[in-house]
Structures are given as structure tokens and as C-alpha cells.
Specification:
It contains 14 helices and 23 strands. It has 472 residues and is of the alpha/beta class. Strands 7, 8, 9, 10, 11, 20, 21 and 23 form an 8-stranded mixed sheet that branches. A 7-stranded mixed sheet has the order 6-5-4-3-2-1-22. It starts with a strand and ends with a strand.
């Protein structure tokens, strides 16, 4: 068996791992690289493998850093099925179309700027996105499925975003059958809306994420206290606006939950919240239609929301003109907009108009990858460039790591504690070098755990006689 790491190895984005035996070749995820000047070039570069030779894809969840190059995979010749959960399939119909639209818009903008014929073609087209959506094949949680004669799979709830999955994969390769487990992105236990990640008890080869492998989040109670304090001080004392970059999937819905929950508890009053993201609006509809995947506390809040009493004033902004109109509001608005790392979309316009005013606040509620505008704000930049304009950062910047949809070091170690025996090999992935190394170090203290932190571009071979159960 050969394992090739084509992304998200000692980095956070571009998730793509290839598993190859004599009988089958498949991918786990096929995501975009995000952040930094090199990301666009890496996304445009030819795949390091021939997409026509890939039998199928297993997709852990809908975030673009895990799914965003699927249309390119189609464009370059892949025609096999893509297996994922029903909720992920629903979200992909929104995400990939939006990504294709962004590709087209950015290519047109680049052409106008360079005035060079044939320059900056989109990475893929809307037709490519539509075509790849036709390859989706849904697999329900906790059911066994055979995508190939030598492969069995089972998808378990990862608790990260709606539809996110841990992958259990049994690979027959004479003389043995090995069990591979991909954690995907794991959620932080005890969070609202979604259930906690499913425990896994055994694996021969384990692939575990390490986004926050070097740190622990603030407690939820502390995070909510800070959240309330920042919002109320900005709106009621400073008379400013609160700007919130948020991922359309997961984080926006979680923030809506908290604004409603805390209003119900009397900690907020008279809020005017604007969700300025057509994609987030569509995702929120999908979220509400998947009530069966909610935890019990979220189900109770849905019932309270349905009663319609004492709710904050929540407005979903649709048109570009409506979005522009928000920039005339000088005080009293909470504006939640994408993208979550401030790399594109409507949030850049709101930052352009609000960063320069001391009475405003920017709430950072999720991971900011190296090279992104969001990361520069978190790192304390005094000036930033937005749409070729030099903008002074006078608004207060608040990082609320406790809202993260990723498990922190403690939660990752707790999830790993469910394994009854150490896997023969464990690969620590999806984390910047410091995070991956820290988590690997913590895990290696446990007897019998063989840790590796692979790099993107690396290939590992597992000998046929190593690990796994002997076939009858």
C-alpha cells in the first residue's frame, strides 16, 4: 500500500491524501489551498497524479479546503463516484457553485486589471462544478458500504460542521486486511448544535488532524463572557459596529445560535444583526432542514425560536445594493459576513469601511491561516491593504478562540483515548508544523504509539506483511 500526501501535511489547507494498492487508487478529500501568495499557483498547478486513474473519492466534509478542487479533478479527467454524507452533498451544491462563481469573477477582474488577452483563466468553470455534483453518492452515518471489491467504508459523525465525517476504511490487500481511520476535522465536544465526535476504538493506520494540536481553547463560559462584553461595550458604550468574519458553514449558524441563546438569557437586548452572505443564508436553510443531526440543546432552542418571542432583529442580506447600504450604518449593527479568513467576499468591504474607526470592533471567531488578511489582523497589523487601499487598523480586534469548530489539544487527546490499542502507524496532519509536532509529541508519550508528521508531497509505503488482520 502506498500513501501519498498531496496537501494538509504540516499545513492546514489543501487536504488531499491518495491511497493506492495493486487493485485500487482513491483519494480522501480534494481541497483548495488557502492563504499566502503561493495558494493560487498551487491550486492552478497540475495534480501530482493522473485524475483519470482515481477510482473514487471519499469526502470528509464540505469546507473548501477539503472539497474545493473537486471540479478541477473532474475537469482533468476524473469520472468516478464521490462518497460523502447526505448533508455534505447538500452543502456542496452551495459551496462548489459559489466557488466556481468566485473563480469566474476573480478571473474577469484580473483580466480587466492586466488587459492581457487570455490571462488569469478561472481554475474551473460553473460547468465543471455542476458536472462534479453529479458524481456525488451519499452514504449515511454508521452504515457499511463497498465502493470497491477490496474496500469497505463507514462514515461516523465528526461533530465539526453539518455532515462532517470520520472515515473508517477497511482495505483488503493480500495477505491482510488493514483498517485505516481518517479523523477528518474533529469538532470540539460540548459545542452547540452538533453532536460530539464519535469515538473510534481501533485502527491499523490512523490519520489525525492537528489544527489546534499545540493549544487549548478557552472554556465556553469564558468565551461567552468575553463575547457578551465586547458586543455590549461596542454597541452600547462606544456606539460603534461589530464586524464578524465568519465561515458560511458552521460558524455563522453557531453565532446565530449564541445570539439567540444569550438574548433568551437576558444578556443581549435590542440587537440588530445582519447576515451578509447569500451562501450563509442558503447554508442556514440546509442546517434547519437537518434537525435530526442536532444535539438536544439545539433542538430546544429551535422550539424557542419558533415561538418568536424576544428574538434579536435578524436580517439576511441578499443583494449587493443591500450589502453596500450596511456601510452607511455608523453604529448599532452586528454584521456577520464571509469569508471567515477575510480573503474574499463581502467581509472585505465591511472591513474597508469599519477598520478605521476606534468605536468599532472586529470579532475573529475562527482559524486564520498564514498569509490571510484575518491572520494579519490577529497578529496586530497597524495597517492593511484592502482592494489596493491602505487602511489604518483603529478598530479593536478580538480573537475568540473558544468558538473554534476544531477540537483543541485536550479534546484530540481525549478522542484518541478511546482507542483500545495503539495503531501500528499514526500520521499527524492538517496543522501548521508547530501544532503537528506538539500533538505528535503528546501522543508519543503513550506506550506503543508510532508517530509521523508527514510533509505535503511525501509518499509512504506500507509493506504487505505489516499490520492488519490476516485474510482467511
Amino acid at each position: 500500500m502506498k500513501i501519498a500526501f498531496h496537501g494538509a501535511a504540516q499545513e492546514v489547507t489543501g487536504s488531499c491524501t491518495m491511497i493506492e494498492t495493486k487493485e485500487v487508487r482513491f483519494l480522501v478529500d480534494c481541497g483548495m489551498f488557502q492563504g499566502g501568495r503561493e495558494a493560487d499557483g498551487r491550486n492552478r498547478a497540475p495534480f501530482a497524479f493522473d485524475p483519470r486513474t482515481i477510482n473514487f473519492v471519499l469526502l470528509t466534509h464540505a469546507h473548501i479546503d477539503h472539497s474545493g478542487l473537486l471540479p478541477k479533478l473532474w475537469r482533468d479527467g476524473f469520472r468516478g463516484p464521490i462518497y460523502t454524507t447526505p448533508a455534505t452533498a447538500e452543502l456542496l451544491a452551495i459551496m462548489l457553485r459559489d466557488s466556481a462563481s468566485i473563480q469566474g469573477s476573480e478571473a474577469e477582474r484580473a483580466k480587466r486589471k492586466s488587459r492581457t488577452r487570455g490571462a488569469a483563466e478561472p481554475i474551473y468553470s460553473m460547468a465543471d462544478a455542476e458536472a462534479v455534483l453529479g458524481l456525488l453518492s451519499v452514504v449515511h452515518y454508521d452504515t457499511l458500504h463497498n465502493p470497491h471489491d477490496s474496500i469497505r467504508i463507514r462514515l461516523r459523525d465528526a461533530g465539526h460542521i453539518l455532515g462532517s465525517a470520520i472515515l473508517e476504511i477497511w482495505v483488503k490487500e493480500s495477505p491482510r486486511e488493514r483498517k485505516l481511520v481518517f479523523s477528518g476535522d474533529l469538532g470540539q465536544p460540548g459545542r452547540p448544535i452538533l453532536r460530539d465526535p464519535s469515538p473510534i476504538e481501533d485502527a491499523d493506520i490512523l490519520f489525525v488532524e492537528s489544527t489546534y494540536g499545540d493549544r487549548r481553547h478557552k472554556s465556553l463560559a469564558e468565551t461567552l463572557d468575553e463575547f457578551v462584553a465586547v458586543v455590549n461595550e461596542t454597541l452600547e458604550v462606544k456606539k460603534g459596529n461589530v464586524i464578524v468574519p465568519a465561515f458560511a458553514i458552521g460558524r455563522t449558524q453557531e453565532l446565530i445560535y449564541y445570539f439567540h441563546h444569550l438574548t433568551c438569557r437576558g444578556r443581549f437586548r435590542h440587537l440588530s444583526i445582519f447576515i451578509d452572505s447569500p451562501m450563509a443564508t442558503a447554508v442556514t436553510r440546509v442546517t434547519r432542514s437537518n434537525l435530526a443531526l442536532f444535539d438536544e440543546e439545539a433542538k430546544k432552542l429551535v422550539a424557542w425560536h419558533a415561538a418568536g418571542k424576544g428574538l434579536p432583529n435578524l436580517t439576511f442580506v441578499g443583494s449587493v445594493d443591500e450589502s453596500r447600504a450596511l456601510n452607511t450604518i455608523r453604529s448599532g449593527a452586528v454584521i456577520i459576513a464571509g469569508s471567515g479568513m477575510c480573503t474574499a467576499g463581502r467581509i472585505k468591504h465591511h472591513l474597508l469601511h469599519n477598520l478605521g474607526r476606534r468605536e468599532n470592533a472586529v470579532l475573529i471567531t475562527g482559524l486564520q491561516a498564514q498569509g490571510t488578511l484575518g491572520r494579519r489582523l490577529v497578529d496586530g497589523a497597524e495597517r492593511v491593504r484592502i482592494f489596493d487601499q491602505d487602511v489604518a487598523v483603529r478598530a479593536s480586534i478580538h480573537t475568540l478562540g473558544g468558538f473554534s469548530a476544531h477540537a483543541d489539544q485536550s479534546a484530540l487527546l481525549h478522542w484518541l483515548g478511546a482507542f483500545r490499542r495503539a495503531p501500528t502507524r499514526t500520521f499527524v496532519m492538517h496543522g501548521e508544523p508547530r501544532s503537528s509536532t506538539a500533538l505528535a509529541g503528546e501522543i508519543s508519550r503513550r506506550p506503543g504509539w508510532n508517530m509521523q508528521t508527514p510533509k505535503t508531497g511525501q509518499m509512504v509505503e506500507v509493506a504487505a506483511g505489516d499490520a492488519g488482520k490476516r485474510l482467511p
